[in-house]
Fold:
Amino acid sequence: MNQTRGILFIVLAVLSFLLFQAYVQDTAPKPESDSVVATHDPNNLGTGIDTANALSISNDVLKLTINAKTGDFIGAELLKYDRTIEDKTPLTLLSNNPDDYLRIVNGLAGEGGTDSASTRADYAVASQSNNSVTLTYTKDGVTYNKTITVDGYKVLVNYQVHNETAKTISVAPYASFVYRPAPAPSLFSRSNVYGTNQSYAGLVISTDSDNYDKISNSDIEDNDFKRISTSKGWTAISQHFFVTAYAPKSENGFDIYTQYSNGNYIINTLAHTTNVDPNSTVTFNDTYWIGPKLQDQLETVAPDLDLVVDYGWAWFLSLPLFKLMQFLHSFIGNWGLTIIALTLVVRIIISPLSRLQFRNQALMRVIQPELAAANERAGEDRMKRLTETQKVFKKYGASQFTGCFPALIQMPIFLALFYLMNEAVDLRHQSFLWIHDLSQADPYFILPILNGLTMIFMFSLTPMPENMDPLQRKIMKMMPYIFIVFFLFLPSGLILYYIVSNIITIIFIIYYNRKLTYLYANNLLPTYKVVDRPITAPRRKR
Structure:
């Protein structure tokens, strides 16, 4: 396999990956009937919200709307994130919008809980501040205080159960996400809300057996998701750059199960029951995250919650690249320039390999006359042609395979950046030149076309071997145009990286082509003594 075939292999591998990404779109969860949060009959959920009993608490980044009677979360606005580029209203993660409906039903189940299969709590507001509210409810001699506090994008829920009766009661905190998947986002940034169409949207859970598991909507609809009991973990609804998560703090463990009814997907998280002795008080603390996928902060909410920033199999490259981007941005201040700087740093890091690639590529180009002469001397004798060709290669220290390894190194970097650009909320709505949003496709197709033009010019600097298979030759000539089509719908930031990388490649190719052409023309290229060892065909076994 010569260098051109190696490049062709890498290109086809990348294209195959992009085709696979476009075809396989993960989604969300599955159901199983149970009576826990039959505290809310799934047939009566609808999309209505009791606005008459709504109250709001907030800080500088999150405004949470709560049903004061039940303590459910019925609305959440991210005050630092606009809905779209043109719609400057805050983005909502919890809402009663039929197109992206999501609310959180929560409370205390169990024999001594606030909620049962037929009734919900009827709280009254005991106290309220800007970022916190305490609700109180008394039933059958038991007093329940529910304090809800917003702390950044975290929502802290504290339950205090005061058992003033003469018998032991059992309670179990629960939370249910009731949602309807948002429609697939458009391909271009002006109309996207949550993120790219390549990003995952749906249910994710973490349990003892699997710290990160995507559950598809079809599993929920078909009741294929089986109830899971776990001692640790969390449940979350991923909305591309954003996530709504519940991390129970139950020492006894909890169960996860799902329901589907009237278009509503319901994901229930139910703690195992805890006994509350007579004349005693038990406290439960739960944590929610309602906000962007900020990796450093997600790690503090629950173990492995940062995995919702889904870098796929390339996480070991995407994560350090993201950290490097953050570091560079702290000095540069513009994400477009940061991507350009990232490209330069990455190319510097892999420059030793690139030097081998481009020098060998230029060397193969300048010794073409000797290779042609060797083929002419060999005539139609294929074994002699191979022998003569290898002599020329060994004379100058050239290799047909050296150019493949740097390309193999760059492919996982490209894929890591593909995941990174799809998951980094930092790039959302960040502009650069005419680009409105570096996390989305270029609405004017300028970057994909520029990328295609740089590829066409780059290919013109590396002529294909004369003996190349005609079909391979045609495919290689078509490759830049194929890439233009594929890159139309990829994040602008990724294409910007590729354009800058192509320009650097072109500079290297021109430099080494000129340098080795001069050295060859003036007989200054180092040569090596070649031992004449004819290649013979292997003997046949009798």
